[in-house]
Specification:
Elements: E1 2-6, E2 9-17, E3 29-39, E4 45-56, E5 61-67, E6 75-76, E7 81-90, E8 94-105, E9 111-122
Antiparallel strand pairs: 1-2, 2-3, 3-7, 4-5, 4-6, 4-8, 8-9
Amino acid sequence: MVQQVTEGVNIMVETFYQPLQSNPTNSEFLFAYRITIENLTQQPFRLLSRHWYIFESNATQREVEGDGVVGQQPVIQPGEDYQYTSAVNLTSDIGKMHGTYLVENLFNNRKLTVAIPEFQLVVPAKLN
C-alpha cells in the first residue's frame, strides 16, 4: 500500500492483479485498485473530479479525466473516509499510475488539488 497526505486529505492505494480477467497471450492485463480517501481536516469536502496518468512498460502512456469516482461525487465528513474500487486495463505486464483529485471544501468553497501517490501495477510473476 502507498499513501500520501495533501493538506489534510490522506490518499491510500492498494493494487490487485486480476489473473482471471487477464489474457497475457493477447497482451491484456487487468489490475484492480482500492483507494481510501480520508478527511483529516475539520471541514467536509466533496470530491469533484479525478485526473489519472497511466504509464506502461511498453512506452504506452495515457491520461484519464472525469467527474467524481465510480459515478459518484462523495461528500466526506471530518474524520471519515470514503473507499472505492476500480480497475485499469494494460497492454503490458508492468505499469504505474498516479494522479490528482479536485476536492471542494464545503465550509468555504475553496477548491484543492489532492495528489494521488504513484503506485505500481505488476503481474506477480514479474516480482520473482
